[in-house]
């Protein structure tokens, strides 16, 4: 046995010993071949699955300085199910490669995870499993060998630092409209996260055209702060350090408090969805319902990923503690009765009726009657009466409480947030 062979034998004993079938990051077909390459002078950390202890020992055998190892794990840059997962699973496609060859249909994301688990076959460390069409990676089992990378026909698996806390689970290069239409979890390429990042750790990557782009994190710069999570319009950035329900600027507000009165009348008239009412150009006045109210059929609830909005007694209501401010319900509401408002302690006017006061009293027992007392008494001029209902300038509102005190209808609601929940104040200060 030659000196190189003897050295390779000692090195092999330090490697994980699970051959990656030639797909691993070392570029060799077996661990034996990798060990021989190191013994012949290749870098002591040639095997990406070798930990720091192993690399230190290999360096000692080779009589060279050790190399610092950055432990990395695989991350799938997709959190949705819009790439035809259910359809491909139903047609029994043999692999993700075969599914992609068969082609995507209109309305499917051509950039997402296909979900048939071809990458799993490459993993020899039992770190990847398929659960309901979703490839789940066990961070504790993932060795960072990189074998799964070449197994992904979509090229959406990325090696990230094992201690990373922020992730962007999307690779869509579609324009923002197409992404919104196709996937609730998609990056719309707005760039807010990149602009807010205090370390310039996020870059916007362009796709095949100038219209489509997505965000990507440079982990050599990322410090794991919460700024990008707060600033993300879609609230898709995964942050394992912070509670997304606390780290937010805005929450949804349904601009109606008395829609339950009209909802029952609309149900009796045979309507079943909010969109149906809009498409039919239904005359709510003729049905003796408020023409400005939430109609309460819950189109908005179907798109909420956080179970933060529900229909109660014929009116949609938002749980601000669950709401993360993604705006999906705001975009979905066909009657535009949902508004994104500041999360922290300002007053909200949950009515925008423009009807005559008498008519308002006829169709609703809770709404604004347009008296204007709130606007007349606001010391900061933060409230303006627009078409008979109050509009609050949140930049001017200091949450003094006077408007709430003078409102005879009890309409002006306060977003009460405990002091210990003001995490976003710190985060947003970091981004300035």
Short description:
With 432 residues, the protein is an alpha+beta fold. The chain contains 16 helices and 16 strands.
Q: Give a short account of the largest sheet.
A: 2 strands, antiparallel
Helix- and strand-based class?
alpha+beta
Helicity range of the residues?
25-40%
Record the strand order, biggest sheet: 1-4
Approximately how much beta-strand content do the residues carry? 5-15%
Our count of domains comes out at 4
Chain-averaged pLDDT: 89
Enumerate the spans where pLDDT stays under 50 for 5 or more consecutive residues.
none
Quaternary structure type: single chain
Counted by DSSP, the helix tally is: 16
User: Strand tally, please?
Assistant: 16
Spatial shape? elongated
Distance between the termini: 64 Å
